[in-house]
Please model this.
Amino acid sequence: MKTAAVLGSNNGRYLLDSFYSDCIIEEKTVVLQKNDNEGFGFVLRGAKADTPIEEFTPTPAFPALQYLESVDEGGVAWQTGLRTGDFLIEVGQS
Model:
């Protein structure tokens, strides 16, 4: 199975004074390939809100509502350079 994702990446690193910075450090495209009996090695989360989010306007600080809550070190996602805190922009070019 192949999955392509374009990610706004912070490379999993935050500096105390730039945690709330308004820029994406890098944007990249990765192709994740895995066997049927394994996972991709990450936990994907979405934004939490008290009411439905009807419109979302991406910003440099928050380019998407979905982000990687955790990435298994050494897993499929980790090997492609994905890190905790990366944003999921697109899957399968859709």
Summary: Residues 1-21 have pLDDT under 50 and may be disordered.
